[in-house]
Design goal:
The protein is an alpha/beta fold. Helix content is 35%, strand content 29%.
């Protein structure tokens, strides 16, 4: 049975009359890569700051690794990489990494071993005596990633981890994220890049205006919002099609996009083309992207809120 590394139960955080986090609950399984999504101002950062012990909740509870979250002791089991740089500009890179490693509970010898290991792994050995202020944005991002994970935390929180990275280094960090999860770390991955979420995450939640509005595995979410759209490629070009089973949405030479009408199935679509002597070269369901789902749900939440406020 899979263990939950983190359980968020009816969590609340208010700033005056503003409900930054409004009764949010979810679970994260051990070893999972978990997407925490939402537009700017949705409540993601406030939620992360409660999980890391920076803020105290106004209501609800956090269960970490099977017991009530202890901000003083449990924080050493968490690695947090914020979107904003948290580095001392005048320090040399090697000294900086060693300093942060020891703050996270490693002995000087263990800190040196871990820093050397990660610097070599990410081709950073030649940076040791450079100052942080001399780093590019991408180099700073790699350093911040290393200082987040080198103490082997049980829970790793990455906020826009690919920001400033070129494609080669983005792939390098992505492979390390997979590796960390395979070795037992749990990853909370927060980003606005939905294509990265689709590729990397096992499970996602979407928050907006302080509330959770979506929770599920990536595959479940895409199935939930599918619209019965299919793509076909025929051997024949510019086929003339007309059927009660589907509505033709797009036709480009021998490539068609159709929506299956209510009361019909994909078998009815295939039957039509077979009975009319068309040769089907491919037939695939079109699932919505997470980006499309994200935009639709966020816009719907805003519209619902405006309607509620207008009646108040």
């Amino acid at each position: 049975m899979t263990k939950n590394i983190l359980s968020i139960n009816n969590l609340q955080k208010h700033f005056g009359t503003h409900k930054a986090v409004d009764d949010i609950s979810f679970n994260i399984e051990e070893g999972n890569i978990f997407g925490l999504l939402g537009p700017n101002g949705a409540g993601k950062t406030t939620l992360i700051r409660m999980i890391t012990g920076i803020f105290n909740p106004d209501g609800g509870s956090i269960i970490f690794d099977g017991k009530k979250f202890d901000p003083i002791n449990d924080v050493l089991k968490i690695g947090y990489m914020p979107e904003e740089r948290g580095l001392y500009k005048k320090m040399k890179i090697g000294e900086h990494a060693l300093y942060l490693a020891q703050l996270k509970g490693l002995s000087k010898a263990d800190a040196m071993s871990k820093v050397v290991y990660w610097f070599k792994k990410l081709s950073m050995e030649s940076w040791w005596n450079k100052k942080v202020e001399d780093l590019s944005k991408g180099m700073s991002q790699k350093l911040q990633f290393v200082t987040t994970v080198l103490h082997e935390p049980k829970l790793i929180i990455l906020d826009e981890p690919f920001s400033g990275l070129d494609p080669l280094n983005a792939n390098l960090i992505k492979d390390e994220i997979y590796g960390l999860a395979q070795r037992g770390s749990t990853i909370i991955f927060s980003t606005h890049r939905m294509e990265q979420v689709e590729e990397i995450c096992d499970h996602i939640i979407l928050v907006n205006l302080g509330k959770k509005i979506l929770d599920g595995s990536v595959s479940e979410v895409k199935q939930q919002f599918k619209e019965n759209k299919f793509s076909l490629q025929l051997h024949e070009h510019n086929a003339v099609v007309n059927s009660n089973a589907f509505t033709l949405q797009i036709q480009n030479d021998n490539k068609l996009t159709v929506t299956i009408n209510e009361g019909y199935t994909s078998n009815d679509v295939l039957k039509y083309f077979i009975e009319n002597n068309y040769t089907i070269e491919s037939f695939n369901e079109i699932l919505p992207s997470l980006n499309e789902i994200f935009i639709a749900l966020v816009n719907n939440t805003k519209a619902t809120t405006r309607a509620f406020e207008s009646k108040a």
